[in-house]
Amino acid sequence: MFSHICIGVSDFPRALAFYQPIMTLLGIELRFLDEHKPWAAWQSKPEPRPLLLIGKPHDGAPHHPGNGQMIALLAQSRAQVEQAYRLALAHGGHCEGPPGLRAEYHPDYYAAYFRDPDGNKLCVVCHQPE
User: Fold this and answer.
1) CB 56 within 8 A of CB 1
2) Of 70, 91, 101, whose CA–CA distance to 25 is shortest?
3) Range of the domain at 93
4) Engineering a disulfide at 114: which of 1, 30, 93, 127 sits with its beta carbon 3.0 to 4.6 angstroms away?
């Protein structure tokens, strides 16, 4: 469904330090990193897309997080959701909802919500039963 999703950041080194450990934990491989642009992208296996990119806004204007936008990353287990949440908070993220079941979505929806250091809202979710 998606080719790529781009997340705007204001401080690229800080954003890279935030996203890299989470993506590594989730098994999402770095596809490219260009600190001069600056931008980086990760991709899931085995397909080359979709990509998740981070970078400074292309137009050179300051980054502004949106209200209502959220990117949800897929975890393979509830433990992985908890680990990703801890990594996010350890790397400058802010809690928007600790790990737990959200049965209002479906009985096995286990997720954590947080914002990156730039205020972009993210979720890590596992849809599998425990």
Assistant:
1) no
2) 91
3) 4-57+69-126
4) 93
Confidence of residue 53 (pLDDT cuts 50, 70, 90): very high
pLDDT tens for each residue of 59-105:
888 889 888 899 999 999 999 999 999 999 999 999 999 999 999 99
Tell me if 32 is assigned to some domain.
Answer: yes
Contact 80/124 with Cβ under 8 angstroms? yes
Q: Which two tokens stand for residue 96?
A: 């928007």
Tokens of residue 130, six digits: 């425990």
Number of domains in the chain: 1
Parallel/antiparallel/unpaired status of strands 51-55 and 39-43: antiparallel
In a domain, 63, yes or no: no
Q: How far is residue 75's CA from residue 13's CA, in Å, rounded to a whole number?
A: 25
Indicate the pTM of the whole model.
Answer: 0.92
Confidence of residue 48 (pLDDT cuts 50, 70, 90): confident
Structure tokens at 44: 């899931």
